[in-house]
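(Deposited chain)
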Amino acid sequence: MGRFRDLWASGKFEIKEKAQFEEFRKQEAVDLMQELSPDALKSKRGAETGRWLSSLVPESAIQAQQPRETTGSSAFEEIISWMDKLFKQFSELTYEFNKSAVGTDLLISYEKPQVHEKKSDEVWYKPVTKTYQGRLTTRQWALVIRGRDAKISIFLLPAGMLIAFNSDQVSEEEVAPFMEVIHTPAGVWTISGETAPEETIPHLAKEILGDLIRVSSGVMSDSELFDAHDQNPTLGENLAVGFERKAPATVTPSAMAPDTSVNAEEMHVSDACDIVDGIVELELKALYEKATKILPGSPDAGDVRRQISAVETFRIKMMDAFEEFTRNTQGVKEPAKRPAPELAGQPKPGSPH
């Protein structure tokens, strides 16, 4: 199915009037995700993660991470700061990776994390839970990074489950994170008990982005997890080497035209959105093909990145609008509102292009 048809199907996990049927559908999706998720990913993501990252950072940097007491609110601010640094790395990595992924299902959409607030009506004083969440998605898989309650949880799940997952209908007990970064009461970041200072973030960003690429490309080899890396893991060389490289596709105006042979009377809204999404995908491929031919720092480099950002912004706004349509049509509970995302490759005001 198409991206939007998958989202429409995932929204059906929420319908309460068909509870028995939908419970079956939900469990079917969870079972599918557990079947598709490589066991190697979770088994390697224990203490080995922290040890590997610690080995890449000098002892002096680990000692320099000074413990400091934090309150609940300041711990959440620390989560935002840590995740922003992680997603800054993702922004550059996805832009460069997408140049090689043109013409494949591995083209990565980047969505900067935003604050989500959820009020609980089950307690008389209606407490508000704050979550900081962002994601990277390929055609079939999503890497979701969620900061909440002094920890950052990293999930890998089928992209078609995003509506159900974001609405908490598929819980973290059913879809457990494969990695957690903990902010201790003393103010120190750890992964499985190992100290993880900010200097580890660039290495961690490459590692977990590599996980998304490996799973999306159907290649998940133990040899690619940690032990094959040197101190400078590089996507496509010693990290996520299993993804299929293809020559950039040549996109012509006729190739971007929608299929007029489709019978509109038999179409669903999701089908129409999938047609538009296909045209957007072709436009992105054309832009990334152009980006591969431009030298970094050249006058045209900034213009191409702005065009890519504009197309990605349109695609994510279309996705958000369709998710809202799905929730309203199918009776899905409304998640917290969030501002418009900042996208990969989008130059910041005043920054060099």
User: Anything to note?
Assistant: Residues 77 and 150 are 10 Å apart (CA to CA). Confidence is low (pLDDT under 50) at residues 13-18, 248-258, 339-345, 347-353.
